[in-house]
Amino acid sequence: MVYKLTLTLLTFLLIAPVVSAQETVAASVEATVGDPPMIDSSLIPAPPSDIKAVDTDNDHGHSITVTWELSADDGSGMNNVLSYEVFRWVPFLMDELDTLRVELARVAAEIDSVGRLTGELKDERAVIWAAIDDMADQMPEAHRMYPEGGEWRLLGKVASGVATYDDTGGKDRKVSDFIPDFSDLYFRVEAVTSDSAIRAASGVAGPVQSYGQWFNTGRTPVFIAFMFFGIMTVFFVIKARRGAELYVRPLAGIEAVDDAIGRATEMGRPILYVLGLGTAADVATIASFTILGRVAKRVAEYQTELIVPTYDPIVMSVAQEVVKSSFSDAGRPEDYNEDIVYFVTQLQFAYVAAVNGTMLRELPATNVYMGKFFAESLLLAETGALAGSIQIAGTDEIAQIPFFIVACDFTLIGEELYAASAYLGREPVLLGSLKAQDYAKAAMILLAIVGVVAAQFEWNWFIELFHVVD
Amino acid sequence: MKRQIPLFITFFVGTLLIFSVFIPPMETLGENFTLFFDIIAVFAFFLGAGNLVRVHVSKLRKRKADWGFSIVTLIGFGFMLFVGLLKIGNPGGIAADVTAPGSWFQEMFNYVINPLQSTMYALLAFFVASASYRAFRAKNREATILLMAAFVILLGRTPLGMMLTAWIPDSLSIFQIPNMAVWIMNSFNLAGQRAILIGISLGVVAMSLRLILGVERTYLGGDDSG
Fold this sequence. Notes:
Helix content of chain B: over 70%
Number of strands of chain B: 0
CATH class of the largest domain in chain A: Alpha Beta
Strand content of chain B: under 5%
CATH topology of the largest domain in chain A: Rossmann fold
Radius of gyration of chain B: 27 Å
Mean pLDDT of chain B: 88
Order of helices and strands of chain B: HHHHHHH
Structural class of chain A: alpha/beta
Helix content of chain A: 40-55%
Largest sheet of chain A: 6 strands, parallel
Low-confidence stretches of chain B: none
Number of helices of chain B: 7
Largest sheet of chain B: none
Strand order of the largest sheet of chain A: 11-10-9-12-13-14
Mean pLDDT of chain A: 85
Distance between the termini of chain B: 16 Å
Distance between the termini of chain A: 56 Å
Shape of chain A: elongated
Largest interface: A-B, 90 and 68 residues
Oligomer: heterodimer
Structural class of chain B: mainly alpha
Strand content of chain A: 15-25%
CATH architecture of the largest domain in chain A: 3-Layer(aba) Sandwich
Number of helices of chain A: 14
């Protein structure tokens, strides 16, 4: 007992001199009953200083960024700082809120075990929800009471050498990481050594309030570029609608589509169309649907056989609709049958095995690969080449483009896949958007050249114009 | 009306998601729409499974060419469905995770599907060789340059490349084959890749705008673009 009192007194005497009005520096000694640690005061590191807490920029609120100056004993001096622990002051009301959340979790578990939402459980849940909302509404007031009626809560830890911490929470009051907006928040950082009892605390930063922004200024360059491109697209579409002649350079791969369909017709062999491994949410797959639509229309006109094995059930459904409509547009709805587009599997190499098997059995005159492709690209294209088919491919997966170039007769490189549908249709309105794309590319080439010059002459202001912060 | 409603939905959702990139309070919208997509995908599984069974049963009935493969497919499908739904051999019983070690479902995956998939993947080694043989024939000027670049990179990535040019002094180390390979990859290859990437990005934006503005409609079925 006497020993513990002496230790506490000693600790107080050691800490007291470094406490100032501006900055509270504390060294805490955690004495455990029966095994009191021996603290060497000379090992207490210098505290982190100049702590600042500001609302995190360009977010939806509920987040504070804390920064500080590293301890003098981090990387230099005694060099014994191992990490920094960041604390936020939270009112006791937050503990009560946590208790309610535990209750809510219990009710949710009960609903799960019962297997349905009974009236009793529904009422109980509604009562807890109302209590949580009520308590969350009181948070700003409770935070204003600092330092009364609350405690410091450990948020997290960062390694030595790091002087920033994002206290990012959510806006859902029912979840434990909820951080109330427009409440006065206070933060503190402690430099921790290998002995967690030996530590030094910074002063307190605060009050600071979190709130959301209405525009992410870090993405301004992207916004300007998007608006510029969007306006150009609309401009050229309107121009095309008014009848302006627009020249678009020919794409060999697309011009080959008609020839390939003709070849299949003459040979009396089918056309195999592979949409790739993408989902219906991938732009490459959507572009592929548009090309499939054009191909299916020609196929219907020439009365050739079409085979479309798919990897994804949603892609299959959309592809069925596209092909069916194309047959109708060609004036041959009766030629459409549901076996044209079919589902194979969602296992990558099992899909390859099935499609390769189809190629070797059916010996299609033409294989068209358009969409998202991964490691299976060469397996498909080489088998097609062995089967003697004319092959046309297009993908936006950079790593797969060389494989297609090597193994296929015609390859649409990158953005040509997206241009293909517009090119195939030859509608002026679609060509208008291609024109905008070409001008945007020209603008980017120009900016890249100016950027190289700017880098040489260290015109950093020019480079900063394009700096995007995420 | 059949076209107007999907076009309106595309325009509305597309515009909303574009603005969500720039407006922080709307940032979670994208994730929410992804969740909607996942929910739809779950139901689409039934479509896929139904289609698979229908196509293969139809093949069997009509005794189309190679109908024997359809029997294998249907037996495999039925067997996996059976052991998966009833959790046959699952040490934890019907309430346990379907992929628990020891369950027939997991055993089939580990000892049948995985080796078969690996076998297919392994074929890539042979196909790379045959494709390279075709690509690297010096038929014209471009193909010759390609052949030379490929030769330098192939040598540069093997110990032989270093052995052959180790005698070159450090002041001329750029002419050592491994360094030349790095130079080709970091300069020509990277520049080409980035150019393609910029084109793809612009293409994606242009395609998305065409879809949002309703200029491109083929994905809805039919051909009345514009």
